[in-house]
Every structure is written in C-alpha cells, then in structure tokens.
Amino acid sequence: MSRSAISVFDPDRSPLPAVVHQLDFADHQAEVPLHVHRKGQLIIALHGAVTCTTGNEIWIVPPNCGVWIPGGVSHSAHATSNARLNYLFVEPGAARLPDYSCTLSISPVIRELIDRLARELPDYPADSHAARLARVVLDELADMPHEQFNFPISDHPKIRTMAEALTNEPADRSTLNDWAKRVAMSERSLARLLSRETGLTFGRWRQQLHLIVALRELASGQTVQNVAFELGYESVNAFITMFKKALGSTPAQYFKKRIAQIHSS
C-alpha cells in the first residue's frame, strides 16, 4: 500500500531557513491527514492539483500559485492522483511571510528556484550555493501578490452543515430559501449569518466553491464538459461564462496561459 505523504519527510528536523521536498502522489495516498509543522509551508503544484483545509477555509493550489500555511497551523490535504508537488518549508521568522493562510501568485523564476532547491539535501551547508538560492526565494516570496482561491467554511454549525453538504454535492442548486428551511432559519437571518461568517453573499459563496472544484478537476485532467456537469450547470457555456467572469478568461485560456508561463521560465 502507498504511504501517507507526511510519513516520508519531517521538515522540522532541519534548522535551515528553507528546505524543499518534492512528492509525487502516484506513490502516496491521496488523503493527507490533519497535521501540523513548526515550519511554515508553501505548497506548489507542478502537475495536477491539491485541496487543503486549514481551520475555517478550504484552499485550492492552482497552476502558478502556492498555498502558504504558517507554522503551527493544523491542516489536511487531498491531492489528485496525478499531482506532483513541491513543499517549501520555512523556518519561523526566516521570511516576511503572512501569519495567516493565503494563496500566493508564484513567478516562473521563483517556481524554478524552488524546484532547484528540491534537488538539495535538507542539510545543505549554511554558506553554500543552495543557501544563497534559498535566501533569494524567501526574499522574493515576501513580495508575491495574493490570490483569492479559498472557500470560507466557518465554525458556525449551520454554515458548517451547508459547507459540508455543498462540498460533497457541488451540483446541489438549492436556493438560499431552501437552505433556510433545512437549517430552521428565516431566509433573511441566514443571509445575514452567512455574510457575517464568510464575508460573502450566498451566491458568491457557492460560486467560490465552484471555482475551487473546477480548478481542481480541470488541473487533474477532467474535461470542461464533465466539470460543468459535476457542478450542475445547465450548459457548458453557462459554466464557461461563470469561470470567465470570475477569473478573466475561459478555462482553456486560463490553463494555456499558466502552462506557457511555466515553460517560458
């Protein structure tokens, strides 16, 4: 049987400011159970996709981005079977990175430098070329822009119930009024609760989930037609319209652009 990804490498054994470990999920279990590191962790998808859960948010790692999880934050993950990932582990205080989880846009140069560090042993000398590369990576990451590829899920039991149901069945097209009846609230009260707990309207909240699922499934090799059906859209065009409105390009254009950016480096 394949092993859990967290059983093969312990980043906290290294005192270095930054170490990188690469994992191919063809050789490991897709589910990474809840765990925590002393070091912060940046997850970059080289191929395929991974979905991470930290506290009250679900994150997708799309192409040309990385999910940053600070040290001490419990998290779990689910990777597609074709996922190949680089994990950059950062010693607390070694870089000006946020103290909260977020998605960072990763430039092609920094992506390649992190991939280069993945070929170094986790005990490289502090005065080595690898150490200098690590310093450049950490300095540059502090200036990378943030992206919104998260789905807030909240600790509130009624919002949590809705989030779990929708993540299990993203094609569910129940209205806010339908959900209000299920959780024994008025529609207005549920709308206020959802806005307070997630910062989003119901429609925007569900759309954010659809984007998370779509990016994950498209990165794993699913067709646009299959993804549109999985998310309950009446037509492929309706799904493409939602995707383009949210991300500024069609699914084909989105992935073509990011693949080109990766290869151009």
From TrEMBL:
One of its GO terms (molecular function) is DNA-binding transcription factor activity. Residues 160-257 form the HTH araC/xylS-type domain. The keyword Transcription regulation applies. Keywords: Activator, DNA-binding, Repressor, Transcription, Transcription regulation. The keyword Ligase does not apply. It comes from the Bacteria. It holds the Pfam family HTH_18. This is Transcriptional regulator, AraC family.
